[in-house]
Predict the 3D structure of the following.
Amino acid sequence: MLNSKKNNVLLVTLTLMITTSLYALADSSTKSAEILANVTLKSVMQGLLKETQQLTQGIILQDFSLIAQSASKIADHPTPSMMTKIKLMKALGTDMVKFKSKDDVVHNSSVAIVKYAQEKNLAAIQQKYQIMIDGCVACHSEFKEKVASILNK
Ligand code: HEC
């Protein structure tokens, strides 16, 4: 009787500790809403596609503010929830480094696009746009099917 009460207290304490540290983590990255809500990788990707379409439109119409706006949303795209990240890490193992490096290609090129949009440098934007799209496609070729089969089962 006494023992199970003790266990209960321990359990509650542990739960509180975990919850508190998760909240702290969420706060420290200022992405609390994203971590607490169940943001899936798929929904992140759907957002990326939407912004890529906007970016394409911006380039075709030479609308530099649209280019800057959409590229900065791609650069700072939401990250999937903690749960998804943990699943991803478990599934990919050391390949996580490769996966992350492809994400970096998309990130770095979109950051550059924002800068070139401010300078109204269309040629440089087009060059980075190509690198960015190659980053999307490279990751999909290597990981999309594998990751989808793990996350969506
Ligand atoms: C680091 C790897 C990686 C990069 C970079 C990446 N994706 Fe993805 N993408 C994935 C994975 C993995 C899936 C499968 C997700 C799933 O089905 O849960 C996916 C799926 C998608 C989907 C399909 C979503 C659906 O509804 O099934 C779209 C659209 C998409 N990505 C767009 C993009 C665009 C646009 C870019 C570049 C701006 C991009 N992705 C860059 C890994 C990546």
Remarks:
- The radius of gyration is 20 Å.
- The pocket of heme C is lined by residues 41-42, 45-46, 48-49, 52, 74, 99, 102-103, 106, 132, 135-136, 139-140, 143-144, 147-148, 151-152 (CB under 6 Å).
- The chain has a mean pLDDT of 85.
- The CA atoms of residues 12 and 18 lie 10 Å apart.
